[in-house]
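PROTEIN DESIGN WORKSHEET
SECTION A - STRUCTURE
LENGTH: 179
TOKENS:
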């Protein structure tokens, strides 16, 4: 079957194409040439796309592979990730994106090695860990990111409740003398 959709004369030798079927484009020599594999329709050249096959997105005159939602970039197939969205890290063995474990916002393998932390945590003193953001001089609290819920102070502070029993206000006061 000829890729010509319409032609000058289909019976005589030297027939020239006037238009092509989907997936082909009309060359300057009036023949039909195949579009690149990701183009559904193209014009002028094989890679000047005007629409894309399923699984690809159109950006002016080209088609880009649509990656899985966890992939920020992919190659060859939608599941062969080359980079990951925030909250995921790239497994170099499987080229898939694996979710970081909370409280990591971003991580690198394994999923528990944090590069950054969610807003109620800060990077800990041990590499790759997140510590609760409990307030000044507070090293442990019941609700990270919430003030006045401290349960343990650093060695230069002491724990004090300045609230009432119905609304406690636990925080750390800096020692004026050695604690």
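SECTION B - SEQUENCE
RESIDUE ASSIGNMENT:
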């Amino acid at each position: 079957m000829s890729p010509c959709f319409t032609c000058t004369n289909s019976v005589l030798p030297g027939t020239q194409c006037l238009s092509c079927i989907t997936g082909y484009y009309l060359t300057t020599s009036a023949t039909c040439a195949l579009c690149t594999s990701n183009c559904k329709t193209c014009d002028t050249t094989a890679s000047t796309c005007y629409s894309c096959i399923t699984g690809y997105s159109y950006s002016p005159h080209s088609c880009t592979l649509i990656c899985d939602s966890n992939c920020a970039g992919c190659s060859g197939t939608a599941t062969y990730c080359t980079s990951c969205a925030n909250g995921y890290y790239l497994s170099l063995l499987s080229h898939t994106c694996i979710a970081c474990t909370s409280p990591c916002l971003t991580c690198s393998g394994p999923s528990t090695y944090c590069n950054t932390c969610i807003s109620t945590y800060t990077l800990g003193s041990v590499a790759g860990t997140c510590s609760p953001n409990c307030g000044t001089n507070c090293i442990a609290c019941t609700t990270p990111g919430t003030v006045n819920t401290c349960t343990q102070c650093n060695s230069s502070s002491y724990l004090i409740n300045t609230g009432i029993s119905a609304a406690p206000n636990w925080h750390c006061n800096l020692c004026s003398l050695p604690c």
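SECTION C - NOTES
Residues 22 and 41 are 6 Å apart (CA to CA).
The first strand starts at residue 4 and ends at 7.
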